[in-house]
Design a protein that fits this description.
four-stranded antiparallel beta sheet; OB fold (Dihydrolipoamide Acetyltransferase, E2P); 1 helix; eight-stranded antiparallel beta barrel; 5% helix
Length: 177
């Protein structure tokens, strides 16, 4: 999976290939790094980059993060987020239409069943990654046609976890019911 980051030097492209729940291969330009990561706390990561340990501290802001390594702050911004932010209106057709994990994760809970009707924004799957839980929600109102995973299963980005057949806004149950 490719990520574009905006730094002081301009846009940098990193290709990240998961090798398991806590390992990645990161390629940038001609350099390839093998990274093992462990979350110490929500803002503290311990990384082993090509076998050498380093602590990284991450602070998140509005589409921007500051990563501090060995006392040096590195402001990093998602280049794609920066481009989207400059648009006056969000293009609704560009919103994700499938439910896929944002990073290598483990399925914790599936609060819906096949055949259930869901409304936009309703929780359909809960994942854990780097000791943090993430709830993925329905991108539109519809009916759950298939659940492609089970609790405890390891999943990777790009894998469709739950299939939802889209229904018209007026056909879906009202939010909160």
């Amino acid at each position: 999976m490719q990520y574009r980051f905006k730094t002081d030097e301009g846009a940098v492209v990193w290709t990240v290939d998961p090798e398991g729940a806590d390992r990645l291969t990161v390629t940038t330009g001609t350099q390839t790094l093998h990274v093992r990561h462990d979350a110490v706390s929500p803002h503290h990561l311990h990384l082993a980059v090509d076998g050498r340990g380093v602590n990284a501290f991450v602070w998140r802001g509005d589409g921007e993060k500051t990563v501090v390594i060995r006392g040096v702050p590195y402001p990093v911004q998602d280049a794609d987020f920066a481009e989207r932010k400059t648009k006056k209106k969000a293009d609704r057709e560009n919103l994700p239409q499938v439910i896929t994990p944002p990073m290598p994760s483990v399925v914790v809970r599936i609060p819906v069943s096949e055949g259930d009707r869901v409304c936009k924004g309703q929780a359909v799957i809960v994942l854990t990654a780097m000791k943090m839980e993430t709830t993925l929600t329905a991108p539109f109102p519809g009916r759950v046609t298939k659940i492609n995973v089970a609790a405890g299963e390891k999943v990777m980005p790009g894998r469709i976890l739950v299939d939802i057949e889209k229904e018209a806004e007026t056909d879906a149950p009202e939010e909160g019911r």
